[in-house]
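Field log, afternoon session.

UNIT: design team B
ACTIVITY: writing a sequence onto a fixed backbone
BACKBONE:
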């Protein structure tokens, strides 16, 4: 080995070569003490192999290649009647491989479980089976595009890239649900399919742009990291959220306007007819109100200065009432005139 300058192992060791090798090892025990451990009359030797860490190396293939070469050598000794020889593969590379394999398995099962639960919740929320299916298509679109491109380019999924789908999936689902709910609100207000989609687009487009800018551009700062997994995480997050925004702003509206969404709009029409038959008004989107502040208190409260209250109770206020008898007003407390 280059690190210890020991004699290389013979390819076909005979009896004399084997004896010579054993003598050399016995003489070099002190020099090779870090690589040898004696336990229960057994000699445990540690043989190290180095591999590049900054390349797209498939650790599974690498470990399989090492096992195939080592086992061939060990089988040769076993065929000669030598027993008790075995190899145990440890170190950082197998550990990284197991960690990546575990993360990838958990990602697949967790992603599938999240998608199923969200689609089922969407079915109950919209009271339409088609709504759950339509929600699944734009949510899977960014994942299929980005990871499909990585597969064609031969880029290996590592610990940095395996976490990005979970983050991007949450953003995609949130935007898609809001867009579909506003489409249904527009339909309940009597709009046709095109008008309802434009109504949802007008309300949700700005929020989708903002989420892409805050999360996508914010996390893209990790792309300038010198640590390779963190760098890949930042690059892939920006790519995933860009594909997610395209999916929600272009792909989802086109999908809702296509014949594939026929049953989605039919379900909304049925719900609208039931509400009309039951005498209940159709639901409309509720406006967004800011939280009340002291400046927003009713007239006559302490938020107004005392001189304004005197003005409202003065002769100008009474004159205004006499000029326009149809004027209606209300005060939160009586004002002395």
């Amino acid at each position: 080995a280059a690190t210890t300058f020991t004699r290389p192992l013979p390819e076909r060791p005979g009896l004399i070569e084997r004896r010579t090798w054993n003598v050399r090892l016995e003489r070099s025990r002190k020099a090779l003490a870090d690589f040898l451990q004696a336990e229960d009359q057994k000699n445990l030797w540690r043989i190290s192999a180095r591999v590049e860490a900054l390349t797209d190396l498939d650790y599974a293939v690498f470990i399989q290649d090492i096992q195939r070469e080592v086992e061939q050598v060990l089988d040769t000794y076993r065929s000669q009647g030598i027993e008790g020889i075995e190899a145990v593969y440890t170190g950082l590379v197998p550990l990284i491989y197991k960690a990546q394999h575990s993360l990838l398995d958990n990602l697949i099962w967790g992603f599938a479980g999240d998608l199923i639960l969200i689609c089922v919740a969407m079915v109950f929320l919209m009271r339409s089976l088609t709504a759950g299916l339509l929600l699944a298509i734009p949510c899977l679109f960014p994942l299929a595009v980005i990871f499909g491109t990585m597969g064609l380019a031969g880029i290996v999924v590592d610990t940095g890239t395996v976490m990005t789908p979970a983050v991007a999936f949450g953003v995609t689902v949130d935007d898609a649900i809001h867009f579909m709910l506003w489409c249904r609100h527009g339909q309940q207000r009597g709009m046709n399919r095109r008008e309802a989609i434009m109504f949802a687009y007008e309300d949700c487009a700005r929020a989708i742009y903002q989420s892409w800018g805050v999360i996508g551009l914010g996390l893209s700062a990790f792309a300038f990291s010198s640590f390779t997994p963190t760098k890949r995480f930042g690059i892939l997050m920006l790519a995933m959220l860009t594909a997610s925004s395209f999916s929600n702003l272009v792909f989802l509206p086109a999908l809702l306007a296509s014949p594939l969404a026929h049953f989605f709009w039919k379900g909304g029409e049925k719900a609208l007819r039931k509400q009309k038959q039951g005498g209940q008004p159709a639901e409309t989107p509720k406006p967004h109100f800011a939280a009340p502040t002291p400046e927003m208190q009713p007239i006559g409260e302490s938020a107004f200065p005392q001189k304004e209250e005197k003005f409202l109770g003065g002769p100008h206020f009474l004159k205004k009432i006499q000029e326009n008898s149809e004027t209606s007003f209300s005060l939160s407390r009586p004002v002395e005139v």
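LOG NOTE: Confidence is low (pLDDT under 50) at residues 1-5, 297-337.
NEXT ACTIVITY: expression trials, pending approval
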